Protein: Aspartokinase
Organism: Caldinitratiruptor microaerophilus
Amino acid sequence: MRIIVQKFGGTSVASREGRQRACSHVEEARREGLCPVVVVSAMGRSGDPYATDTLLSVATAENPEVPPRDQDLLLSCGEIIAAVVLSGTLRARGVPAVPLTGAQAGIVTDGHHGDAAIVQVRTQRLLEHLRRGEVPVVCGFQGVTEDGEVTTLGRGGSDTTAAALGGALRAEVVEIYTDVDGVKTADPRLVPDARTLPVTTYDEVAQMAHHGAKVIHPRAVEIAMQSNVPLRVRSTFSDSPGTLVTFSVEAAGTAVSPLRPMGAVTAVTHVSGLAQVAVEVEPGDPRGLEMLRHLADAGISIDLINLYPDRKVFCIDERRAPRARAVLTGLGLAPRVRTGLVKVSVVGAGMRGRPGVMATIAEALAGAGVEILQTADSHVTISCLIQQEDLERAVRALHRAFGLGSGN
Ligand code: ADP
Ligand code: MG
């Protein structure tokens, strides 16, 4: 059996047009002799009637305290609605579809409500449907514990469901259908002339996702890489081939490589909503290190970390700023917290060992009048912390400086 997993995101299933287009992609796979397993997200985006946070607001309006277990039960409804509706669309077009909850599809998770990890996929039931020629339409973003508690998988959870199913079912490919036609050189909402990458590697796209390219979730990329299933990010609304994600760009074939920007940098990404925390300490003051453990115990993850003997600087999600401030003042420290910041990153496997990337970044940002507040780098990424109001100018300037636009 040749299996393909096809995941349709929120905007793809929200409208009748989107659902019809989704069905066409399913039918096309069937015509090619593939057995599709469909994964769906909740319909629409934030604010739409059945979107995940709309559901939550219904419960919090009644009582602001929704325990994590109850919250997961509620949040799982959005995908159930989408799976039933899309199954209806498919059946109306003559495709025998069967909507399944995460539990029914065999997605077993740990008990970490709100951010559960998939520990096992029991494929038996899915395989039975496929053998009968049916198309399972699986609710993304959700699973069930061994004890039968409904869980959700956290942000980007439907991508994770799709990748996990692809691995467990040994699918030929996992297709991630969304509202843009692939992984692009920058968020097209900020950079209209961003180009679609015909092919990229797991490593590169995971870095992009970690640094804010929300087109695919990093956990999904990791799962696909571990099980060696190729991913394809495509648009629901077009027939363009999208972006193939695999182990090596070269192995993907020469047909695509001439289109591939082979410069140092592949893409510019960004993460909004950050706060920078700076704490002055006397050198040798044990609180300078103890604070890291206290922040961790409070569930606050830190990024862009610079530790000097007399000064500790790092970034956090700005929504956690009040909590972080409370933790630090509780230790008798006097943190300075600056909110309204963004991290812009340039990502590219081609920058390994290549001199001048930081110089190009610094010049491009200075030329655009953007002040760099802090930097960090890894082997394939350089990140700069800047102010939110500089975001668009910064991303565009970097995109241009590295020759990523379609005009280049
Ligand atoms: P879905 O609901 O289909 O999962 P998402 O909103 O999660 O869709 O992801 C698609 C969005 O990701 C696009 O609309 C686009 O604005 C955004 N995005 C951010 N960075 C990138 C990028 N580098 N390439 C493509 N899309 C990006
Ligand atoms: Mg998404």
Summary: The first strand starts at residue 3 and ends at 8.
